[in-house]
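Milestone 3.1: sequence recovery, worked example.
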């Protein structure tokens, strides 16, 4: 295998330890060395640096390898860390390979189509990247995205040049927007969140620390409200049981006055979540609205839907009917981009503590997170992409990153060099 002393079997095992088991690169290297020592294998095993290099080369190969063309689906989104840059990621697969009705899309179903770091994301810039992506797979039949204005605008420009492309918006974002629109107008919600935060500060260093509530996220809050509402229900059950301590009564007794509000929010969130789960697995088509009616009817049979929940259902029904209306008879669209969100989470895990310093060269390894690889695939990838090629791609993709500037700030090498890098653009043309 080109440029290395290790077999494809070792490379495959080492990278899978990182990509499939969640081990860190240093943990995978140490684990392999420990196994080798205990079993008396008497062979060289890869270091952290070697595993990192392989992941970059596999990710680079994902951006170069031939991809299937024809009627496919692209999932597109931005991810941000620190700094002003956004990473535009385009992943996809043939529509015929989407497992509608069996399960949601997985990372193993997808391949990396495009990757671009944008200092300023505009609809024109997004459209340019979509055109570049089309050179790899051809023009897709469908593009799925959230409701970001730059993404929407870029897709519309792309559609003007290529007829027959359908855009479908991620239902999880639409559902979150429906809840946000309702709850931000409800003074009880703001009071509930404030009082929960105050209670958290008081119980953190006490014997009741196990009753610390989940953190209410500042970003994408309404996509992640279920843990908070479930916690409120558990505390209410504890208060009703009569087994709560005086301190619990002191910090959470106010929840009794919010019982009706919590019941309403739980019902509304359950309606939204059931719709998202259905679309995640079954996609969106002309029949989705009718099928959701059946899902909500079943949900209501176990716990009657509140008037607010019925309103949420009505609004989501209108949304899925509009998204599915362009579908031809027998045609189904991908209606969720959550699998792409999980890719971003895995990338940050791969970067570890360095993700707090902005995008790093490990961003290129995003392509290694997708698809399935055999030992033959690994051998082909490393034969096709030497380390120098991967390094060149990293420089072209990232330019001078916040992470690089921070490292030079902490350990300066040359004042003139630092000044030149700070004045250079983040993404070379």
């Amino acid at each position: 295998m080109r440029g290395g002393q290790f077999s494809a079997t070792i490379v495959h095992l080492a990278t899978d330890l990182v990509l499939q088991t969640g081990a860190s690169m240093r943990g995978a290297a140490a684990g392999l060395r420990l196994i080798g020592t205990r079993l008396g294998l008497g062979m060289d095993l890869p270091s952290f640096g070697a595993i990192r290099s392989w992941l970059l080369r596999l990710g680079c190969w994902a951006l170069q390898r031939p991809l299937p063309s024809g009627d496919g689906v692209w999932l597109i989104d931005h991810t941000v860390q620190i700094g002003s840059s956004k990473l535009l990621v385009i992943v996809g697969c043939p529509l015929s390979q989407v497992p509608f009705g069996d399960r949601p899309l997985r990372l193993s179903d997808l391949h990396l189509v495009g990757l671009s770091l944008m200092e300023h994301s505009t609809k024109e810039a997004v459209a340019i990247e979509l055109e570049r992506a089309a050179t790899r797979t051809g023009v897709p039949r469908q593009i799925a995205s959230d409701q970001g204005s730059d993404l929407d605008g870029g897709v519309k420009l792309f559609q003007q040049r290529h007829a027959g492309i359908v855009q479908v918006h991620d239902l999880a974002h639409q559902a979150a927007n429906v809840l946000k629109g309702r709850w931000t107008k409800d003074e009880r919600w703001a009071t509930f969140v404030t009082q929960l935060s105050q209670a958290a500060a008081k119980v953190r260093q006490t014997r009741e620390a196990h009753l610390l509530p989940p953190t209410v996220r500042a970003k994408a809050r309404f996509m992640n409200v279920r843990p908070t509402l479930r916690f409120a229900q558990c505390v209410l059950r504890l208060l009703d049981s009569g087994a709560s301590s005086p301190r619990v009564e002191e910090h959470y007794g106010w929840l009794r006055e919010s019982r009706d509000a919590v019941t309403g929010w739980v019902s509304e969130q359950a309606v939204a979540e059931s719709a998202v789960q259905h679309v995640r697995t079954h996609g969106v088509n002309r029949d989705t609205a009718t099928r959701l009616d059946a899902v909500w009817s079943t949900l209501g049979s176990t716990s009657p839907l509140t008037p607010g929940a019925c309103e949420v259902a009505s609004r989501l029904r209108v949304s899925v009917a509009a998204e599915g209306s362009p579908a031809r008879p027998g045609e189904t669209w991908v209606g969720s981009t959550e699998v792409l969100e999980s890719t971003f989470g895995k990338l940050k895990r791969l970067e570890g503590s360095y993700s707090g310093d902005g995008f790093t060269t490990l961003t290129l390894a995003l392509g290694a997170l997708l698809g399935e690889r055999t030992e033959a695939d690994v051998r082909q990838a490393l034969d096709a992409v030497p380390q120098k090629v991967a390094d060149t791609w990293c420089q072209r993709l990232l330019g001078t990153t916040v992470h690089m500037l921070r490292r030079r700030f902490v350990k300066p090498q040359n004042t003139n060099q630092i000044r030149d890098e700070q004045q250079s653009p983040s993404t070379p043309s």
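The two ends are 33 Å apart (CA to CA). The chain has two domains: 1-170+337-429, 175-324.
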